[in-house]
Protein 1
Amino acid sequence: MFHVKHIAPHILLINPWITDFSAYNFWIKPLGLLRITSLLRENGFRVTLIDCLDFSIKRRKYEDGKFLKTKIDKPHPLKSVPRNYSQYGIPEEMLLKRFSMLEEKPDIIGITSGMTYWYPGVFKLIEITKKLFKNVPIILGGIYAALCYEHAKKHSGVDIVFNGKEELEALKLISDLTNFELRTPNSLPAGASAQAGD
């Protein structure tokens, strides 16, 4: 019989930057990540959520506004496009500061992904987290991970690419990885649609 961990694992969830020619904050929220955050907390996990898009300048009356942006090099397939390419969201220094404020090292890091062509921002975030949190398993989920699963497995550098469609599957996966007993196991699906990245 396997040992069940009684000290609640610490899960760090991160919504990455947007990398594109333009982006505007029309109330962009990582709904899937927020649902997973809620499920994890309901089941006793300790969760820290960092949203790299939670930073706008010149916020307007209804809380929309322009993202802060940092000009970056264009990916090779986009080199011929005669427009500036940028990273949108919080500055990298602010992300590092938020990491430094964590009271303890996470047991698992979960990173979501948006549009498939925003993957450069996802990859940069993965690279940073791998350097700072050595030997902490990283799970990549979201739209890019689901639609470009093989590309993510080959190029992202994460430990697990999650291509499931249900937040409950992600909860089951994290529970299995941490050996942490869930409070609501009867509401979970039979298995999780995830495979380790090679």
Protein 2
Amino acid sequence: MTSPPQTVRTIDDLGGPAGHLEALLNTGSPQAKYAVLLCHPHPLGGGTMHNKVVYHAMKAFQSRGLPVLRFNFRGTGLSQGLHDHGHGEQDDVRAALDWLDRNLHLPILLAGFSFGAYVGLSAVCSDPRVRGAVALGLPFGAEGRSYAYDFLSTCTIPKLFVSGTNDQFGPRNQVAAGVAAAHPPAEMVWVEGADHFFTGKLDQVQSAIRNWLQARFP
């Protein structure tokens, strides 16, 4: 499929409970049937909306003509506020959902990498505006932080999980158990030999996203 012409817009009117949130919108096709919200990894580890995995995920969604909103969590980049260890960041996700709903009037797909996957899933599973979710590098423990996913047992939207078999923050047995306990539909794609950051394997991440979109949201 040939990608439609696209532009990148700086979003100046995305505000959350902690203040202004820095954001970019990659526009999509006028015929797009979904919009995408994309969440970045942990800011204390240098994560921003410009992260390489986030960027490549954006390109995968763009290849299907979908508009993609990326934003920086509170206290990251030019976003106002202070880092809140995944709590207030869920409110940032909800603010971004509100912006997409208000401005694009489309059903929404959520995608996140690492911390962004945890925070994004935590925030959207009960939101009727969100029709599906992609979790890249689902983390279970990183630098003293731990993450639990009990809420996935009641998360009924279609879900795609993509992890590396050598992910240092999401061991294969833990990720597999978490996905098995998730409410269906929940699909798992393993990237053989990939670490948490999918080093040298980002093309396989893009392929997994595109294949899921084609199957679930053609």
Protein 3
Amino acid sequence: MIRVQFISIVAYGFIAWWYVTPWLKKLERGQALTALLWVHVFRYVVLYLYVAQREGYAISDNAVAELVIGDLGGALLAVAGIVCLRLHSRLGLAFAWFVVIASIADVTGGAYIRSTEPPRADATGLWWLIFVFFAPLIVVSLPLIVWQLYTRRDEPLSG
């Protein structure tokens, strides 16, 4: 599964490089960040982990709680950021940074829990699709958000 996730990250990386970054450059700063934050809103899909666990995916309750809290937190931060950016509030910039920081913490926490728990079988079914296609999209979006926040820091949110 890790290999397939890596392939997805590479594929999303090429899409970002060839198509997304030129498109983002044409948008106003607030619009570009809003588009990138929308990817994180759908992190509530982590709630499917409860179904996967009930269907036999061997993951501890502790790991499920950490993943759910991290992803729902990231989703809520993204929604708050989008609302602020739509209102042309600079608070949206802070929420975008919070999404990045919380996402890095979530990935780090998940990797730590995975390394301390007994090995488990790879995900199957819908959870496999989430792991292989959605999680890499989140990972690829983070450097794009940082790129927008850092390189366009002197630009106004909107024209």
Protein 4
Amino acid sequence: MAKAGTGALPQAGPKAFYYGWVSLGLAALAMVGTLPGRTQGLGLVTEPLMRDLGIGRVLFAEVNLVATLVGSLFCLGIGRLIDRRGSRLVLTVVAAALGLVVLLMSAAEAVWALVALVTLSRGFGQSALSVASLALVGKWFSRRLPLAMGVYALAMSIGFMVAFPVVGAAVQSSGWRAAWAGVGLSLLFVLAPLAWLFVRSAPEDLGLELDGGAARDEPPLVESVTLAAALRTPAFWVFALAASVYGLAASGIALFNESILAERGFDAHTYYRTLVVTALTALLGNFAGGAFAAKGEMRRLLAVAMLLLTASLAALPQVRTQGQVMAYAVVMGLAGGFVMVVFFSFWGRAYGRAHLGRIQGAAQILTVLASAVGPLVLAECVARTGSYAVAFYALAGVVAVLGVAAAAVPVPIGARFKAPSPTSS
């Protein structure tokens, strides 16, 4: 029997469609819903917002830093809440809260109101809703987690690929306030109700087995470990820091991408084209990364991602033609696709399900803190040197070191799991 309070969704037999794939789709939709609380989403309205409120670039970067640092604190309790109360309640409440905040932000007139509302959008979006989305997939999958996270990353990337140009077009045609109000209404009256109606926190809530039943030639599930035990493993820090430095670079580029390309002599249309190219190649990275993660060690995939990211960061200050800009966007997208798959699937595979919310919350807070620093690093670099180049070269060096560490660090046995060959008996 299904647990009380989980709704009247039908239970599946052993050979029926596994409801985990529905949960995965809703989790991907929830991650797309974090757009207004992420740097990439805020980047869509950065220039018109600054003009509207009369805010300078460094001041806006400082507002973003404060908002992201304070918003990252939402990661601290959300994992424990998910582990205790389940993803259904958390996703519904957080999505509704984020929608209300975005609606209020669309009407903000003062800098102090902007600071408060950007902070809340960071907390509910980039922090809380992101952790809840990732944990939901980890609660439904274990043996098939690399495949599931590859599908999740693919679905999420398609969602962002649709959302970015739609919101961007709305900003250009109707202004940032109307566009942001539309995003808020969608969260409040579409995502939140869908989460309440269809999300179930774990397969046990519907009387199902994890992964839809065990495959006979797969090894036992990895034993769950506590957050404290995970923090004592070098792999946690290497994987979390690698994802965080990627987030630092990506957030800074996303927030000031139009300005970065203008420094190289390109117009706003090139900026929007790079968004599409990056999103498309990230899809390819999700697909290829998910396949590789299911068959080999995740640390190799992370090392390749760091190598690609190093190349793209080092090349960005040198781009001079449309072809070079698009080549940069392709490599950056592939690196991002690989990093997403690794970050999404590593924690559950390596450390188990029981404390997954807490462990992913700890990793997420590092990425949020890094994303807060990214825009300020770039803004200060421009203010002091007149160019973004020094920051990109320095970041390329840091990423290269993390790539070497990713290739060498010992990882928990679950992350070294290799899926059986289709021809194995």
